[in-house]
Amino acid sequence: MAFYRGSSLSLQQSTRILPVISGSAKQSRAFCGNTRGFCKIYRVSASRIREGDTTHHGHGIVASPASSPEPPVVRKELESPPRQEHSPGSWVERWLPAAARPYALLARIDKPDAIWLYAWPCFWSIALAANKAELPDMKMLALFGFGTVILRGAACTMNDLLDRGIDKKVERTKSRPLASGALTAAQGFYFLVFQVLLWFGFLLQLNNRSLIMGASWLVLFFSYPLMKRLIHWPQAFLGFTVSCGVFIGSAAIKESLDYAVLLPMYFAGICWTLVYDTIYAHQDKKDDFKAGVKSTVITFGDNTKYWLSGFGAACVSSLALTGYNADLAWPYYPFLAAAAGHLAWQVSTVDLSNKSDCHMKFVSNKWFGAFLFGGILCGVLAK
């Protein structure tokens, strides 16, 4: 509503602007959207407003011209900031000393969801190695749980050391400790050495065959960042690497490996990794393309969902073969069906152009692994 010089207000108009406070006077100031000026509203008697007298000199509404026209105010919606990889409100920021925070963020211990993706192949094979109608070795499960935390941290540190130049160009990763300058490359290297020593401390708790396999496993993880520069299917190499856990977990329990059971599970793990890591990589597809990073996201292009559907079907089929060859009891298969449904839900509903949705679908894969582990556990117990 605009007010002009010399105009008078009705009782109805006045009461829309000035709150009436019984028995008292109120000093108010109202800005008028008209560029000719603003209205100064001085002391107005509440009783005069009720009587309709809005023109009384000294008690009415007087419009004074502005010294100069004011430009109209243009409201601009602020864009929401891009999702950063490290949340300022994480427990690392709240509880750890300032000197330790960059190292914790470098090892990604503030993001435990991805640790499950490293651990599940080990847990699956440990559960498969259990004796008929018996629970798996709980001590070995706990030991491998600790080991995968170390392994994942070391792999992330190595990845960030090699990719720190690329990470600076990617919106999601530019806040990482090495890319942002919170840690120097030398500090990152010394931390990596410390993590490798912890990893070998873990391997010393296993038998000799598992120790050799575990050392080789670490080399594969350290090679993964280079694959993003060399091949167009780095996600396949990651699957090849992560899924080796099915052999190491079984070797830690049994003297001999049952390849009829483990090879289909290994292949299923590769296909599963291709699904979840391709979804994950869609968060950075624009930046990766500019930086020249190779990825299945770029290779698959608009046909990504068709590829993911094929990998999902191959994964579930291989896991069914694993159950058959391992002679698992019938409870294994309802759990496998639940895992298959979860995989189908991911592929069919993921919005590959939405970073938040891609991240949510990626971290949900811990439940796929949990379904399968539950199926193996029940299938062994019900033999």
Task: Provide the fold topology.
Blueprint: H1 11-17, E1 25-30, E2 37-45, H2 46-51, E3 61-65, H3 91-95, H4 101-106, H5 113-128, H6 138-167, H7 177-180, H8 185-203, H9 208-230, H10 234-242, H11 245-251, H12 259-281, H13 285-291, H14 296-300, H15 304-325, H16 332-349, H17 355-363, H18 365-381
Antiparallel strand pairs: 1-2, 2-3
Helix pairs in contact: 5-6, 5-11, 5-18, 6-8, 6-9, 9-10, 9-11, 10-12, 12-15, 12-17, 15-16, 16-18
In short:
By secondary structure, this protein is mainly alpha-helical. The chain has 18 helices and three strands.
Give the rounded overall mean pLDDT. 81
- Low-pLDDT stretches are 1-84
Question: Do you know the CATH topology of the largest domain?
Answer: Tetracycline Repressor, domain 2
Fourth-tier CATH superfamily name of the largest domain: UbiA prenyltransferase
Number of domains: 2
Annotated CATH architecture of the largest domain = Orthogonal Bundle
Distance between the termini: 80 Å
Number of continuous helical runs: 18
**Helicity level:** 55-70%
Total strand count, please?
3
Give the helices and strands as they follow along the chain: HEEHEHHHHHHHHHHHHHHHH
Q: What is the spatial order of strands in the main beta sheet?
A: 1-2-3
Global geometry: globular
Sheet of most strands: 3 strands, antiparallel
| Rg, alpha carbons | 32 Å
